[in-house]
Amino acid sequence: MIDRPGEDESKDASGQAFRETxxxxxxxxxxxDLFPGSQAGEWKQPEKKANxxxxxxxxxxxIPAPNTLEQTGLSLNQLCNLVLKQLYxxxxxxxxxxxxxxxxxxxxxxxxxxxxxxxxxxxxxxxxLIGRSxxxxxxxxxxxxxxxxxxxxxxxxxxxxxPLDAYVKQCALQTVxxxxxxxxxxxxxxxxxxxREGLLDELGPAVCSGRSIFIYGPPGNGKTLIxxxxxxxxxxxxxxIYIPYALQMENSIITLFDPTIHQxxxxxxxxxxxxxxxxxxSRIPEMKDWAKPETDLRWRxxxxxxxxxxxxxxxxxxDLRYNKVSNFYTAPLHIKANGGVFLxxxxxxxxxxxxxxxxxxxxxxxxxxxxLTLATGKKFAVxxxxxxxxxxxxxxxxxxxxxxxxxxxxxxxxxxxxxxxFTEIARLCCRQRDIEYDPVFVNYLYxxxxxxxxxxxxxxxxxxxxxxxxxxxxxxxxxxxxxxxISEAAQRFFCQL
Length: 497
What we know:
P-loop_NTPase, 5-stranded parallel beta sheet, 15% strand, alpha/beta, AAA+ ATPase domain-containing protein, AAA+_ATPase, single chain, 21 helices
């Protein structure tokens, strides 16, 4: 199995079509039981649509902007601390600039500004007739003291956090369970791959279930590429989801949005909303979009994320990372993968033992809920809402016990390619390297190695052709598939195994 040269990867897929399934109802019931303090009981299933487009998906699951402080899920004290810290860092700021930094409508920020002004923590140094949104605010001496106290508690400055229950509710709406996966759509996502016949018939039900997948088999046959192909399917065909910049758990802040992982799709909209830079022009910023935005700007619209980890994975990476200096947390990798794919490559070769890793995930795989622990020792539940893929070339019986295998619903074996598939891979590898294909290449490998007991691997044509290219480059010759070069490359390659 091999990755074909990609065509234009900008083909946008239609949006996610959610279907009301028994598993979806079970998921909401489970969330209702585990999050009694949230609004789980008020969740509504997305309406079933015959042909949901990307635009419809955005409209169905977009998050409306809060109109009041209460709707933000934040207390007045939390909002005031955020404003004080921003002013402390900037020295002074316009009301609309504070609104932009907090990603909240100015009508809500104005509540904090009025309170802080009455409390003699801020003062107005200049302004225009259009209202407090154009006033320039400075900290007073008392305000600087309050800001330093706020920094001691938490040094986070940026978009206002979202309460945990709102995040839980959104995760239930954009679950991987019930993604519209058909043979045609899955085949389109794997069109750049050469795979054995019938493999998509095994992968399709696994994607539809939204459950974990265990991919195993001998090395070099494309397990990682297949797992990445599943990620590409959800990333392109799974519709768009929303993720907050940060979460608020009681008095603790957890940053969640990661630009290295989350591929945003709302950049143009945010650019259109941004006002003129005051350093480059004297015009007052346009207030209309930030005074009454249509959506909650504390969330970013992204493609379903794909998180890949390998031998570097350890148990610490699956817990909250606490910065003792800044006094806020960073979400672990598997939480950043919510709504998408979490691929554990080379499973069994991690720094942590497979047994310890699997024990960590037995309950999350079963209940789709994980528990994280704050520095204070308090535990809280978060959604474990992702398609998790284990990929290994080790014997599954040596890695996991029956209890764990039972919780992984789908096990897919990737075996050595048959000769016709191997030949197609060899042809493709030659085209990719501008080398004229000759049947002697495959015939030589089968006559001298594969028919003698050595199993063919999908990666062999690529590796052998790279050796041939290196030999020809050293000798100053054009790469060709001559019997002499094939023999020399094969002897160098196979004798090391």
